[in-house]
UniProtKB/TrEMBL annotation:
<dbReference type="GO" id="GO:0005829">
    <property type="term" value="C:cytosol"/>
</dbReference>
<dbReference type="InterPro" id="IPR002028">
    <property type="entry name" value="Trp_synthase_suA"/>
</dbReference>
<comment type="subunit">
    <text>Tetramer of two alpha and two beta chains.</text>
</comment>
<feature type="active site" description="Proton acceptor">
    <location>
        <position position="62"/>
    </location>
</feature>
<dbReference type="InterPro" id="IPR013785">
    <property type="entry name" value="Aldolase_TIM"/>
</dbReference>
<dbReference type="GO" id="GO:0004834">
    <property type="term" value="F:tryptophan synthase activity"/>
</dbReference>
<keyword id="KW-0456">Lyase</keyword>
<protein>
    <recommendedName>
        <fullName>Tryptophan synthase alpha chain</fullName>
        <ecNumber>4.2.1.20</ecNumber>
    </recommendedName>
</protein>
<dbReference type="InterPro" id="IPR011060">
    <property type="entry name" value="RibuloseP-bd_barrel"/>
</dbReference>
<keyword id="KW-0822">Tryptophan biosynthesis</keyword>
<feature type="active site" description="Proton acceptor">
    <location>
        <position position="51"/>
    </location>
</feature>
<comment type="function">
    <text>The alpha subunit is responsible for the aldol cleavage of indoleglycerol phosphate to indole and glyceraldehyde 3-phosphate.</text>
</comment>
<comment type="pathway">
    <text>Amino-acid biosynthesis; L-tryptophan biosynthesis; L-tryptophan from chorismate: step 5/5.</text>
</comment>
<keyword id="KW-0057">Aromatic amino acid biosynthesis</keyword>
<dbReference type="InterPro" id="IPR018204">
    <property type="entry name" value="Trp_synthase_alpha_AS"/>
</dbReference>
<comment type="similarity">
    <text>Belongs to the TrpA family.</text>
</comment>
<dbReference type="Pfam" id="PF00290">
    <property type="entry name" value="Trp_syntA"/>
</dbReference>
Amino acid sequence: MGKNYLEKAFNNKLSANEKIFVPYIMAGDGGLNNMEERLSFLHECGATAVELGIPFSDPVADGPTIQDAGVRALANDTTLQSVLEKLEQFKEERAIPIILMTYINPIFIYGIDRFALDCVKAGVDGVIVPDLPLEEEAMIADVLQDKDIALIRLAALTSSEERIAEIAKRTEGFLYAVSVTGTTGARSSHQTEVKSYLQKIKQHAHVPVLAGFGVSNPEQARELGAACDGVVVGSKIVDLFHQGKTNEIKELIQES
Ligand SMILES: O=P(O)(O)OC[C@@H](O)[C@@H](O)c1c[nH]c2ccccc12
């Protein structure tokens, strides 16, 4: 478990000449009891790792689909603590790396040291904290480093080349290339400059680069994936799980 486990899963995929596919799910959407089953289903479908969202009342980067899922999860009393406890229960059986996605506030309230410790107990391999800029990350970066948990940094279309270089230098596990200017959510197409943006990031990165935001079908996944190492798909997966359309999830992952 940990950073190496995540990097190994990515490298296995890439050395087999395949692209990485990381689905996002909201923990507690439909109850926490479905989590183990959803994770193993996504693994069987061919996902390389799963991004697991912690519901939060003020999710600044989330679009409507993920926000709705967050509201459902909060209504089920899902908390950072209950998610970590649940993960710990089936840690030994789990065969797919987990990247926890949470805003900084819940971590801060939980306690940074306690968070890192409980992530280890739960077998969390990486963490994404979208509202934590490089300038502020020291408060958790060192603690996570110490526990061998990858801190995944994000780049934006508006990031300068200098900033991209710094993000690329610091990121662990992979580099999350946010590929729209806006919030999460399925979109029918991406801006034309996305390809050159991904290529620019690729030149700086020493770990895989994954494009995320707005990817909702295999064509988009293949198109963006061609300019980097793969994709993260959130809203579409969240929607399909909510509607019980698991066959469509399988198709989406397998055809991407
Ligand atoms: O939903 P989309 O457009 O497919 O984008 C992925 C995204 O949902 C997931 O990675 C995510 C959900 N919430 C976030 C907040 C910040 C960064 C990333 C995320």
